[in-house]
Automatic annotation (TrEMBL):
It holds the Pfam family COX2. The keyword Metal-binding applies. Its main location: other. It catalyses: 4 Fe(II)-[cytochrome c] + O2 + 8 H(+)(in) = 4 Fe(III)-[cytochrome c] + 2 H2O + 4 H(+)(out). Residues 55-163 form the Cytochrome oxidase subunit II copper A binding domain. This is Cytochrome aa3 subunit 2. Keywords: Copper, Metal-binding. The keyword DNA repair does not apply. CDD domains: ba3_CcO_II_C (cd13913). It is found in: Cell envelope. One of its GO terms (molecular function) is copper ion binding.
Amino acid sequence: MHKYEKIWISLGTASLAIFLIILGISAVHGGHTPAASGIETIHPEHIREDARFSEPGLKEATEGSHDYDLYFIASAFMYEPGEVEIPAGSTVKFHVTSPDVVHGFQVVGTNVNMMAEPGLISTYEMTFDEPGEHLIVCNEYCGVGHADMTSVIKVVNGGTENE
Ligand code: CUA
């Protein structure tokens, strides 16, 4: 009887220790990588020095493909680029950030509707099949120029040299 008690006590102690170790490791880890995966961070005061945002706009993800990265800076009270052309049929991954306050980034008529937050890069991927124009609007109140914050995506036929 005495022997079993000892075994149970040491088993209990061991599992408690293991639990605390796991908790400790995940807490430390969590501090470096946010729980929600895929969140990229950026220093809001140094966006221009960041290679990703030094020249915002459309960039080929891989040469000769229909995949693009599209970088947008949302600031009070404008988007950069103010207009962008995308070849019809391309898959575009949006990367949006803000150097100042929280802005919205809604591509009218699509599922793209996110926030542009200082310090974070919001991403969303979608394919533009149909030629046409999409207005980008800010849907987070950000100040006096809020309603003037717009950009335009123009989906065009046969726009790429590599076709
Ligand atoms: Cu930017 Cu509202």
